[in-house]
Backbone:
């Protein structure tokens, strides 16, 4: 075995599709799933004579992101042309930003596995248009071109090479994912390609100052693929170096089916993109008043919200982090907590426990929950006021989820109201004691463990409805004779 | 007086007074184009049917009393402007069969103004040339002498107006492509301020330099058409949102006291001595009209040709990448694979000059050369623009020759691109600085017209037009018609 300990160095380039109604430089719709080329205007098709006109919403969204990551917003940014030939690139160039991007020098904090925080630098975020796509399925011998996606606005968020493991990379990517959805600038839909990344991966001996030669893994569209692709690639590079080889700078593709990365093109084969400022577009000049207005309208950001939850609701930082993972989930939790005063932990446990499990089981987002915050709050209110026990509540929850009825209706219908009347409980205890003289004698002769047996018997006789605290108190008194 | 020898302004008055109908006027021009056009090769497409239909519609509008200043007046467009339903070739095999699905903003505005489109004029391929010889449809001839070039790239428009095949024409000017052919054909041609007229629908050559303008027989006619063409277009981010003056109404002001600058660098050794005399004569007419003269210097101007031939090819190499045989335009027969499709479609579709500029542009943008060429050229461009700004802090207008020499023989400069490029030495500066400039006829050298150029500060079109108009009120050069076309 080698004596060298290797360190993986990762930088991510995240492409987030901005959720505008129309494209970045044309009025065509950005809706997903239309018939090929239906959402391609003359501008998207790159027709002779047409010109791009910048969509102002795109600029506002980029500024939002920049402010949320504490970045510098460029007073003047410019669009450039990235020139290369490809059938799905209608103009023969992609309009992007090269020198002078709209957002530069920001950062995000991620939480590592040991609970410590790490700050990841964000070099820049720039605006660009997406390309179309080539279609092969059902088109024998030819390639189809669908330009619906051409001109879709993207923001590319480029991190510093500051992540040191696949897990850190995933934590960072998730953080960005959460943030763009908080800001409502990207729907985060990874299946549809609205949120994807390229990972720059290199390895070096632990403690080395210089970076190793990097490979860029293109187009990773799930957190799992990011993790697996980085793990595979880091191992490949270490094996290569340890067996006397050299890593070459290249672009690689991750094949999820085989769980491996494959070379796409080397540096020598790379295009010379001949970037130059796009003369069809004016520089984007932003006033401080424009930026201040956007700053004033920023929503509470994930980290701020988590900190507030931890304080206001006395939650652990883990719970606060989970509950603030999306704006919708956080809003749902807050509504439940508000309606069940004094029980924020109970609310947290239920939202993170039963509710999340039910949602996951059906693959639903919180917005599609079958239980409204009000409905769940009613249920938790019945636990809090002693009407039902936590155990019964789970049964009620299931019935609510299945039927859509509210908690009180189900409790009444099924007669699940907890017995808190001590004389009623005493009557049941007496019956149980009468039916189990042997166990009673054993208990009284010192077998304390049998206490649980009596609890169980009483619960069984009451259909679980005996108030547990009351039962404990009464049973202790009765059993001791 | 024959209908076709009247100015646009006169024709407008005649239509308004119902002396003739738009249909009669259109028929007269179509007949003249059919008879005289082929020898000049000034047209790529003649729009017989749609022209007559447009004319009838215009006559109805005039009859109803809802005609405008231009209703029923015929014109021609340079074949670089997209016209819905009528093919737009840009003088290239690449677009030989191309029919745009939309109208350029200039086309739409003039259509809305009620004009009648007679046809599309021949031009250097993709507007790359100074002689109208690089067209896929063959060289345009100069009506003053069919063995000579008409200048370019808007040579078809200039020749058509000079030969009175149309009272007015649109053109585009990237480095002199309106002014230089106007000078060589003895007509009046204005390149407006960059951003004054929308570029939407004008097939791009060099986006930061291209500007649409007008070729006519007088500054007054230019003013009439410009008013209808100019203005902000939300579809062109580089068009400027500033009000359009009523150019025709602003003509006729005295130019007494106008401070005119004579650019030292324009009167260099490259300027033909006879040409120089015509310019000097024109300048003395201005002094007689009360203008004051002052010599000014544009020290970086001699760098304008090399600067232009870095910036323009760079932009064109990118602008013309869309012609790849995939979606529109020429596609080679039976491509073997994608590379073959690209290579042969572009190889067959583009002519030699276009290829030369694409290669030059690709080179100057390449990694390792960008700073030395493109970036440096952009810096020099800023210096040239600053020179002009400094000059305009001292004077209100600059006068200069439009070209170093009158028209030259067809074929004379095709073998040597540098000699050809030097033809634009006096016109390129205005493009690099985005300034408005006009060329007006100011006399003849050996029977060939010579052009006087007036350059103004940004958005000073009315000042330029007024100064040109003042000259034309006192001279008759612009009324000269080539022999055989009167």
Residues:
């Amino acid at each position: 075995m080698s004596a060298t300990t290797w360190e993986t160095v990762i930088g991510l380039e995240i492409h987030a599709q901005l959720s505008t109604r129309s494209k970045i430089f044309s009025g065509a719709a950005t809706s997903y799933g239309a018939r090929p080329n239906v959402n391609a205007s003359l501008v998207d098709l790159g027709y002779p004579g047409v010109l791009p006109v910048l969509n102002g919403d795109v600029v506002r969204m980029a500024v939002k992101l920049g402010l949320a990551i504490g970045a510098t917003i460029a007073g003047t940014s410019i669009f450039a042309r990235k020139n290369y030939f490809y059938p799905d690139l209608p103009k023969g160039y992609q309009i992007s930003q090269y020198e002078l991007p709209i957002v530069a020098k920001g950062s995000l904090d991620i939480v590592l596995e040991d609970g410590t925080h790490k700050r990841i630098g964000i070099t820049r975020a720039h605006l660009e248009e997406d390309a179309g796509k080539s279609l092969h399925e059902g088109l024998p011998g030819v390639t189809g071109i669908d330009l619906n996606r051409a001109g879709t606005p993207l923001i590319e968020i480029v991190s510093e090479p500051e992540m040191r493991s696949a897990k850190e990379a995933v934590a960072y990517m998730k953080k960005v994912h959460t943030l763009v959805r908080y800001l409502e600038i990207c729907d985060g839909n990874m299946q549809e390609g609205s949120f994807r990344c390229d990972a720059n991966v290199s390895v070096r001996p632990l403690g080395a100052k210089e970076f190793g030669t990097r490979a860029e893994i293109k187009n990773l569209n799930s957190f799992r693929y990011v993790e697996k692709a980085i793990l595979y690639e880091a191992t490949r590079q270490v094996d290569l170096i340890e067996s006397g080889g050299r890593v070459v700078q290249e672009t690689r593709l991750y094949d999820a089916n085989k769980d491996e990365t494959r070379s796409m093109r080397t540096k020598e084969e790379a295009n010379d993109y001949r970037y130059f400022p796009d003369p069809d577009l004016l520089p984007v000049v932003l006033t401080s008043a424009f930026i201040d207005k956007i700053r004033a309208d920023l929503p509470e950001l994930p980290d701020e919200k988590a900190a507030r939850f931890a304080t206001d609701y006395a939650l652990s930082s883990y719970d606060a982090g989970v509950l603030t993972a999306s704006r919708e989930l956080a809003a749902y939790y807050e509504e439940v907590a508000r309606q069940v005063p004094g029980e924020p932990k109970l609310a947290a446990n239920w939202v993170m426990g039963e509710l999340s499990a039910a949602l996951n089981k059906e693959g639903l987002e919180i917005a599609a929950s079958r239980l409204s915050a009000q409905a769940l709050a009613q249920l938790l209110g019945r636990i809090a006021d002693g009407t039902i026990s936590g155990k019964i509540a789970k049964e009620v929850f299931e019935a609510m989820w299945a039927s859509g009825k509210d908690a009180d209706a189900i409790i009444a219908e099924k007669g699940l109201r907890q017995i808190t009347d001590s004389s009623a409980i005493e009557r049941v205890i007496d019956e149980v004691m009468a039916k189990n003289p042997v166990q009673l004698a054993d208990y009284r002769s010192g077998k304390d463990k049998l206490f649980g047996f009596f609890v169980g018997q009483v619960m069984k006789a009451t259909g679980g409805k005996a108030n547990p605290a009351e039962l404990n108190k009464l049973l202790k008194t009765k059993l001791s004779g | 007086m024959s209908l076709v020898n009247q100015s646009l302004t006169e024709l407008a008055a005649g239509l308004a007074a119902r002396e003739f109908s738009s249909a009669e006027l259109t028929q007269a021009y179509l007949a003249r184009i059919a008879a005289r056009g082929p020898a000049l090769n000034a047209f790529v497409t003649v729009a017989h049917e749609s022209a007559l239909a447009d004319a009838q519609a215009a006559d109805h509008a005039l009859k109803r009393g809802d005609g405008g200043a231009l209703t029923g007046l015929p014109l021609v467009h340079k074949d670089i402007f997209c016209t819905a339903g009528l093919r737009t070739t840009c003088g290239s095999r690449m677009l030989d069969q191309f029919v745009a699905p939309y109208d350029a903003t200039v086309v739409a505005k003039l259509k809305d103004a009620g004009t009648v489109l007679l046809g599309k004029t021949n031009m250097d391929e993709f507007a790359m040339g100074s002689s109208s010889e690089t067209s896929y449809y063959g060289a345009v001839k100069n009506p003053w002498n069919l063995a000579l070039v008409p200048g370019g790239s808007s040579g078809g428009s200039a020749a058509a107006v000079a030969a009175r095949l149309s009272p007015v024409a649109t053109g585009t000017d990237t480095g002199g492509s309106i002014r230089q052919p106007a000078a060589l054909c003895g007509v009046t041609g204005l390149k407006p301020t960059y951003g004054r007229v929308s570029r939407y629908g004008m097939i791009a050559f060099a986006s930061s330099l291209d500007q649409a303008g007008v070729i006519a027989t007088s500054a007054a006619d230019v003013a009439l058409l410009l008013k209808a063409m100019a203005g902000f277009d939300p579809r062109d981010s580089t068009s400027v949102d500033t009000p359009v003056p009523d150019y025709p109404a602003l003509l006729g002001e005295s130019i007494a006291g106008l401070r005119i600058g004579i650019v030292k660098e324009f009167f260099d050794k490259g300027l033909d001595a006879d040409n120089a005399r015509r310019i000097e004569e024109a300048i003395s007419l201005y002094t007689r009209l009360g203008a004051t003269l002052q010599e000014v210097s544009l020290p970086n101007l001699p760098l304008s040709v090399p600067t232009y031939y870095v910036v323009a090819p760079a932009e064109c190499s990118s602008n013309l990448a869309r012609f790849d045989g995939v979606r529109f335009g020429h596609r080679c027969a039976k491509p073997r694979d994608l590379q073959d499709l690209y290579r042969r479609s572009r190889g067959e579709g583009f002519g030699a000059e276009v290829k030369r500029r694409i290669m030059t542009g690709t080179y100057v943008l390449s990694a390792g050369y960008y700073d030395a060429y493109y970036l440096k050229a952009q810096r020099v461009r800023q210096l040239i623009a600053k020179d002009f700004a400094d000059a305009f802090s001292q004077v209100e207008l600059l006068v200069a020759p439009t070209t170093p020499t009158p028209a030259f023989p067809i074929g004379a400069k095709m073998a040597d691109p540098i000699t050809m490029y030097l033809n634009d030495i006096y016109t390129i500066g205005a493009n690099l600085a985005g300034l408005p400039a006009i060329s007006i006829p100011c006399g003849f050298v050996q029977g060939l017209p010579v052009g006087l150029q007036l350059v103004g500060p940004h958005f000073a079109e009315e000042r330029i037009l007024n100064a040109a108009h003042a000259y034309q009120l006192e001279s008759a050069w612009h009324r000269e018609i080539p022999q055989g076309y009167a």
